[in-house]
């Protein structure tokens, strides 16, 4: 069963997400990272936007998330982060993978019955400019039909159903990160399902609601 957290208004709410953790390893180094992993260091600024972390009300966060999702839907990752008051530090290139090889749990069992037509993964590092860094994993999965995609998204959204392993954080120079699936977002566009997860990487950390909003914005990104 999912856990619970208390929101800024004092309401006890369930923690949504996949409920399955997966650790990716690395060591923080915000300088130059080797290019073998296809890393791009992108300095798209957040302009005058306020940090997305502490001090942001739920109303402000919802508005930022909505604006971020609109930008993400257009394929503009930098603009999506900026709407959230974030700046992209770096990202990996999109990397293709074989579905069975990088999945586990019921998600892998699904792929044994229903082949996927494509799977691509990417990892972002974003910051609020106040020392907090979040790692954001995004995967795009192609399925044979709209119906298969609907079933797959329903499975991915269910707590404890398994997952697709994120790219290792070492390629971004990030510390060991445990992707729990508790800060999670998904979207479906026809035969393609997008799933995103976000976790704290450095600093005092973003709160649960902010990380969840970051993941929900990232889930609206087309393959970028």
What's the short story on this structure?
Residues 64-74 have a biased composition (Basic and acidic residues). The chain is of the alpha+beta class and 224 residues long. It has helices at residues 58-73, 77-83, 105-113, 146-157, 208-218, and strands spanning 4-6, 12-14, 22-24, 39-41, 87-92, 95-96, 103-104, 118-127, 133-142, 163-164, 177-179, 184-189, 192-202.
Question: How would you summarize the topology of this molecule?
Answer:
Blueprint: E1 4-6, E2 12-14, E3 22-24, E4 39-41, H1 58-73, H2 77-83, E5 87-92, E6 95-96, E7 103-104, H3 105-113, E8 118-127, E9 133-142, H4 146-157, E10 163-164, E11 177-179, E12 184-189, E13 192-202, H5 208-218
Antiparallel strand pairs: 1-2, 3-11, 4-5, 5-8, 6-8, 7-10, 8-9, 9-13, 12-13
Biased composition (Basic and acidic residues): 64-74
Biased composition (Gly residues): 47-56
Region (Disordered): 47-74
